[in-house]
């Protein structure tokens, strides 16, 4: 018997958030760092350890940077999150040349964790690279063990290049089948963009990466 399988990361990690239909979703190649966000954090919100979110709409200039940003939504109000978000947007740059002179949505999240030594944990990275099917096949346990559904969660840190580093197996269900080590071998194939889907800096952030293996036995073709 041989096996076919699907490998699925958690849906929250792979699906982009809903954007306004008229505005494209840019791929950011430059974005504010955690230190930039901490420095821009409004003093009143910092003192109260209050977090906030801002949705900006900006026009991409010829250098690929957001300019003329306007605040569409700011939650909560009265903490100057909108002003801070507009300053942070100036540090961003898109990859797509065809977005020049177009309006894009820029989400910015102010997470109080960015002010701590431990830093933030991101749950919605914008993936810049992911493993190919061949990469999964190369790390797949070679023995048939009767297991049809496995979920592995890796705990990693995003490096300066966007790669995942320092990964460990946070959980493996069922354990002891070799899938955890296989998932670890895949970690170097993932790469994260510098700005998450929900508007947070990713470099240096902690990340939990769920990988689900769904296995289906395939009967061998009859010999002629």
Quick structural gist:
With 224 residues, the protein is an alpha+beta fold.
Notes on the protein architecture:
This protein has about 220 residues and is α+β, with helices and mostly antiparallel strands. Helices cover about 20% and strands about 35% of the residues. It folds into two domains: about 1-15 and about 125-220, Fusion Protein Consisting Of Minor Coat Protein, Glycine Rich Linker, Tola, And A His Tag, Chain: A, Domain 2, CATH 3.30.1150; about 30-115, 2-Layer Sandwich (TolA/TonB C-terminal domain), CATH 3.30.2420.10. The protein starts with a strand and ends in a 6-residue tail after the last strand. The strands form four sheets. Strands 1, 7, 9, 10 and 12 form a five-stranded mixed β-sheet that branches. It has a three-stranded antiparallel β-sheet with strand order 4-3-6. It has a two-stranded antiparallel ribbon with strand order 2-5. It has helices at about 10-15, 35-40, 45-50, 80-90, 135-140, 180-185, and strands at about 1-10, 30, 50-60, 65-75, 95, 105-110, 120, 125-130, 150-160, 165-175, 190, 205-220. Mean pLDDT is about 85; it is low at about 1-10 and about 10-20.
